[in-house]
Amino acid sequence: MAPNKKPQSRGIYLLPNLFTTAGLFAGFYAIIAAIRGDFESAAIAIFIALVMDGLDGRIARLTNTESAFGAEYDSLADMVSFCLAPALVIYQWALLDMGKLGWMVAFIYAACGALRLARFNTQIGVEDKRYFQGLPSPAAAACLAGWIWAGSSNYFDPVLIANIALPLTFGCGILMVSTLRYHSFKELDFRGKVPFVVMLVLVLGIAFIAIDPASILFGGFLFYAISGPIFTLAKLRQHRTGRQHDK
Fold first, then answer.
1. What is the pLDDT confidence band of residue 6, given thresholds at 50, 70 and 90?
2. 132 by DSSP, 3-state: which?
């Protein structure tokens, strides 16, 4: 007689998926705000989605509520918040008057983001957790949203906005599907104790960002996007130097 199998639970964990839903809502709202012409709010909404995306995974790990459903749901939410939303918002904001070139570059970004997410999902459990392969889609979205926020709040010249938006959108798309390595910062332990000076540095960092959030966040994420090629070139040079010494 076959042993009775314990029925599997059909429920889902509420807390992490609640944050994922909040991120999805922020990405959807960014699209709606762009349609209304409120680009500053659209950019801020993408940053809110980025915060929610960072929280859902960490909360799931801290509360031991990770699940296959949560991982799939998070990936689909990322597709909306960090692929479609940034592409549509920056197209409405800066690329609309460029005709076919504008919407093709926006599509390339969205498609590269989808490919980046698909590649990431197939590498879960086998990749080096210290690094990302290619620019993470939230960071790429933050680069576009940062430029939209900075340009909208500071009333930059429309010609300057378009001249930077086009290569920035295309470049972020290509970096997402590249094989360049980016630090993941997953080795940071948020549960352990830290020296008091760390809290002081965090407070000063928040105060510094508050001076001009749009420009500082854009600059920070742009530096992170550039760090991939710099880090890879440095590693290649170090590897070549080591091979020359071995000869």
1. very low
2. strand
Per cent of the chain over pLDDT 70 is 89
State how beta strands 131-133 and 181-183 pair: antiparallel
Tell me if 148 sits within 8 A of 93, measured CB to CB: yes
CATH superfamily for 14-246 is: CDP-alcohol phosphotransferase transmembrane (TM) domain (1.20.120.1760)
Contact 53, 78 (CB under 8 A): yes
Backbone phi, psi, residue 212, to 5°: -155, 80
Calpha distance 158→136 (Å, rounded): 28
Within 13 A of 177's CA, how many CA atoms are on the CB side? 14
Burial (CB count <10 Å: 0-12, 13-18, 19+), residue 127: middle
